[in-house]
Amino acid sequence: MNQSIETSSVLNHYVISDLEWINFNWKAIENRVKFLRYRIFNASRKKDFKTVTHLQQIMLNSSANILLAIRRVTAINRQLSGIDKIRIHLIQDLMLLDFSTYKPITYNNLIIPKTHRKQKLLKIQIIKDQCIQLIIKHALEPQWEAYFEDNVYGERPGRSSHDAISHIIQIIKLYSTNKWVLNIDLSSYIFQLNGEVILKKLRFFPRIDLIFRWLKAGYITKNVYFHTTLGLPQGDIITSLLANIALDDLDKVIKMKYSTSTFNSFYVRYNGAIAILVEKKDTAHTLGKIISGWCINIGFNLDLEQISKTFIPDGFNFLTVYIYSNAQDNRHLSVIPNEKAIKDIRDKLKNIWMRGRGKDILWVLDRLNPRIREWCNYYCFYKSSQIFKDIDNWMFQRSVRYCKRTHPNKSWTWMQQKYFGRFNIKRKSKWIFGDKESSRYLTRFSWTISRQYIPIQIQASPDNMLYEEYWCKRNATGITNDKLWNSSDFKIAQRQKHICPVCNNSLYNQEPIEKHKIVIKKSTSRLYTFNMIFIHSICYQCIKYAFKTT
Q1: How far apart are CA 27 and CA 541, in angstroms?
Q2: What is the pLDDT of residues 233-250, one digit of tens each?
Q3: Sign of the CA dihedral with 519 first, then 525, 526, and 529 last
Q4: pLDDT, tens only, 398-407
Q5: Residue ranges of the Reverse transcriptase domain (predicted)?
Q6: Which residues contact 544 (CB under 8 A, 6 or more apart)?
Q7: Rounded to a whole number, what is the largest CA-CA distance in the chain?
Q8: Using an 8 Å Cβ cutoff, are 275 and 168 in contact?
């Protein structure tokens, strides 16, 4: 393989080959963007707006920022045909792009049915526009990371829904006098926010004109063009950040109304899901009126159905879990998947079973197992063992129905011998559904091991240089991972120190990852743990191309 090519010298020509893309020093590129984010965050903390604007302009013009945005977006869209050629053209276009004259292209929207006879619009974006949005987001996000309240978790770097759930549990245990929880769901209203409110808050941003053009970009549905009024578009990369910026005023309103030293101890927000702990039901009612009035000022009326006041010992829903108390003092809490989450996973699995009628068993396994692992990896931090067993029993019934539909003229004994057996030698069950020819089988929910989630420090931000060592240690533990909670997979990642060996960056940097076998020449080794490795999908594509050209 050729030696590494200097990024700056290559970018001067704006014409980059596939091999040159492979040999970029991605570690240095990511460090450059991270260092600029550090500086923007620190200047924003000091309220040095002139320096913030200057650094944001540097970030927008940075070739490292452009390359990193292209890498992240093309990694997400890696399954598109001809993505490698698109990547090269993107570099040439974005390096020469004038943001002041760029006009977002009209999007094509698809109408997707939702539950309760509702519909939503899915925006189909072009990759170039996604890259530009990510470039803008890298410049805008660290500024607002310095402003956001510590108890806001939705769509922020380094934070997850697990952190929000852990925070609300800590609040309930610590302040047992707060017996009522005010639950508000603004998720269905976020895209109705008045864009003018956001533009006023971004008046010092260098490329506010581009954000304005995004907000008013039209769309096409069923070959009919619609001109949008100012509001947040659905599906954009930058939409979640703009929504947090708009809802930041709501956080400040609640903080000013109940300005006590323990404010951060009873208020948690994750995107549009808000949970507020209060002592009395009357206080919750008053607070609900204040929030409804704020919603009217920014362009929408909040339905009373979206506001619920619940007595904590009776239990309440927050995000996708159900939290209830085993005692009146609120010190013994249990967290389980809520009914909606269970119904959703059953509907998804049932849909796969129905589409698999008459198809090969391997087709069914290839689609069921990833769904099962993903759901179990999320809920393994909660008291889910009984629910896992219940879903396993339901899955067994679905597998029996699959066998009977596939072979209606065969006996049950024949089906049992063909599809069921002790496929997993570590388990005693002889009723595991699988394929005896390939030895592949259906993963069970109940095999998932319960784990303890370690929440982040409430004031820690990846853009704060003071917490750089903290985030290095946290990433090295793999706790930020949401994909590899299978014990054998986790051992592989742990052996790598959760680092991609190709680009030397964290495995969990928002890019898809793949597991591959390390093939040694003249070796016939089997698929054991010690000869497997995890790398980013885009890094694997680079390796494949490098071997083809050598």
Answers
A1: 17
A2: 666 788 889 888 888 888
A3: negative
A4: 999 999 999 9
A5: 1-323
A6: none
A7: 78
A8: yes
